[in-house]
Amino acid sequence: MSTDPSPAQRAESLERHLRDHGVLADGEVDAALARAESADGDAPSPALGARVVARAWTDPVFRARLLDDAVAALADLRPLTVPVAVLEDTPTLHHVIVCTLCSCYPSELLGPPPAWYKSFEYRSRVVREPRAVLAEFGTEVPEDVELHVHDSTAEQRYLVLPLRPTGTDGWDEQRLAGLITRNALIGTAWPRPAT
């Protein structure tokens, strides 16, 4: 039985040590995380990815550039050092992303990957039984929709451009971005419905 501390315990201990030695102020880490994930921030986060998708939904020229060469299309917003390809969902095709070897993920755009993305269970099962895994996320992909699983690597990362929810005509980018979750950008969820 291992007595090693968990990653969360190690992070808490490190943060406490840095605070005790005057390197960090109380609440500084939480504030930094909140800034990074702010809907109007430019730091890598699901919010930044949501803004990219919302722009693609409202700007056909940007959408075409994004699908053709995402690195060039995103250069003004967030320069990327690893190639990212954007995969567009259609009514008959749905994409889902995995890294079967480790946890390659478009971190330069979306921030750190979720813990489940790095898990052996997700990495192995989504390739063999993608519909079952997506159903466990609450995402039922109809049988008449083709499902493509894309394997990220150290040299190539992927981002899903999900279908725009119905009932969102006339919505601005900010309102649309509120419908897009990190899981929708990976393909394990649909965007939130219009309300």
TrEMBL record:
Gene3D superfamilies: Nitrile hydratase alpha /Thiocyanate hydrolase gamma. It comes from the Bacteria. Keywords: Metal-binding. InterPro entries: CN_Hdrase_a/SCN_Hdrase_g_sf, CN_Hdrtase_a/SCN_Hdrlase_g. It holds the Pfam family NHase_alpha. Residues 8-189 form the Nitrile hydratase alpha/Thiocyanate hydrolase gamma domain. This is Nitrile hydratase subunit alpha.
